[in-house]
Each structure stands twice: as structure tokens, then as C-alpha cells.
Automatic annotation (TrEMBL):
Organism (species): Nothobranchius furzeri
PROSITE patterns named among the record's database cross-references: DNASE_I_1
Coiled coil: none
GO biological process, one term: DNA catabolic process
UniProt superkingdom: Eukaryota
Annotated protein name in UniProt: Deoxyribonuclease-1-like 1
Amino acid sequence: MRSIFLLLFLLTVADAQRSSEFRICAFNLHHYGDSKSRKSDVMLTLARIITRCDVCLLQEVRDSKGTAVPQLLQTIKRYDSTSSYQHVSSERLGRSESYQEQYVFIYRTETVTVTDLYQYPDDLKGDEDAFSREPFVVRFKAPRTGQVSGLSGLPYRGLFLCFLIESNVFSVIKEFVLIPQHTTPSNTTKELDALYDVLQRVKKMWRTENVMLLGDFNADCGYLAKKNRKNVRLITDKNLYWLIPDDSDTTVKLSTSCSYDRIVVNGETFNSAVVPSSAQPFNFQQEYGLTEEQALDVSDHYPVEVLLKVVRSRSFAGGASRSSSVCVFGTLLFLLQVFM
């Protein structure tokens, strides 16, 4: 028996599969429009942040002239000329003609493609017009994202994990859906609860359980009172996983500490595809050595992000690779079990 496992070990080491990560981000740009797009330092920082992500949801895009988003894409392409980026945008949304926003998804075409779009019509009977800014739902295909399951009872499971990855014997989340939402602060509880209805419709319409909800939910401090949480199905449903902890600070100002921006995944299968503890705010102020004033010129929010596990196929050309820490651990476990 040990000789069989040793053979598997040698085969795996001889031609080990590489893994990397797939990053999904959500960023409230705080009134991004023509004025902000003229600030070269701000645009460079935005490009640095967005190009870290395979998919980046942008909120509070107020591009009334239709020039600020193309300008951002040009800056991104100049900053990262080695990759190709595209975007999809909602229509301008809002109950007031004087204040409207767009949802914008910018994505790296080497690692992900858009397969479908759906503008939620906010027409649920008995709860019409629940949102100020209705979700603009996007379905993506990312061939490299995946997860391996069913190994917990196997001997030498660390080694088996490497072997299965090498053999492409794994369940892959090839497609997933992103539902964005920027809630209205004065109506956060109702909009978060109504988001649950959007989730159910999308799951049924596209016959998928692989759904992530993300954005500036205003889900903390004075906008979502603790006593109201029991009334939000998006919180009470045990099949939904809130990945950004309640004690995270997604705000730039030193005077505030609120976990407004969130990422929620539907179902255990999708949750198991998430890199553990990877969901967090990205403190670009600290990362890029900015003053608080400089950071606030970019946004008053930090982006939030999460990593999905990735299996890199030999035939997939996009993206860099690095050795899998899982395989290293599996090798050590194997050696301990065989020789002790």
C-alpha cells in the first residue's frame, strides 16, 4: 500500500500542478465623475487598486457626461499594458433626476468573461420599488476557479489533493453570479432584506447556486441597528455566509470605524471555493503611503475583496502561477504518515 502512495507522490512531485488566486473586489468610489477623472494622482491610485482584481465592482459612479468611465479604462490600460480589461455598466439608477449612480464592473479578460446580464426590474408584487438603485446582476465565467471536496475521510488526503488537482479530478465553479448593491443609508434594513428576493429570483432564473452579493451595504453603525438584523433575511438565512467580519473598518476616515462594505456568498459549495480568511478591506492608504487627505481624494471607503481558489490548467494561458502551499503540506503529511 505504501508503495502505491509513494508512486503517486513521485508522480505528483515530478509534474506538480500550479495554483494561483482569483480576486473579486467591490469599491465605492465616492462620487466618481468628471471632476475626479481629471485628477491624475487619483486616477493612478484607482488604476493601481482596480488592476489588483480580476473583477472589480465600482459604485457611486456618477458619470453624467459619459466620459469618466472611459477615462478610467484608459488609465487602467496605460498602467497595466500586459493585461486586457473590459467593463459592463448599468443604466443610471436613482429615484431623483438630480442624483443617479451606475454600477460598473471592470474585469480582466484573460481570466474571466461575461456570459449574461440582468437589470433587476424591482417589480416584486407587494414590494415594488424596494430599491433606490436596483441591482445590476452579472454572470461571469472563470475557467480557473474551483474547489475540491470529499477528501476529509481519505488517508493521505493532503497528497490526494495534489494528485486530484494534477489529474483535473475536482469540482469546478466555472460560472458565478455577482449581485451588487449600494443601499440607501436611510433605508438600509428594507433594501438588505429585499436583496434576498433578488437572490431567489436570480438563482431560479439562471439555475445556479453560485451567487455572491457585494457592495456598500451600509451594514453597520447607525444605518443597520442590531435590533433590526433579525428582520433581514440576508442575515438570518444560515445558507448565506457573510465574509467581511462585523469588526472590519471599511472607512478611510480615522474618526469612523464601520463595516459598511460587505461580501456575502450563497451556499457551502461557493463558500468552500473561497480562500479562508481572504475576505477583507484593502487599506490603500497604508499600502501606498498616502495621507488621510490624499486617500479621501480617492474615496471615503476602502475596497473590500475576496480570493477564490484557483486550479491552473496546462491549457490556460492567462495569469501567473506559483507553487501550491496545499501540496507542500500534503507532502509533509504523507512523509510523516509513511515513515513514522
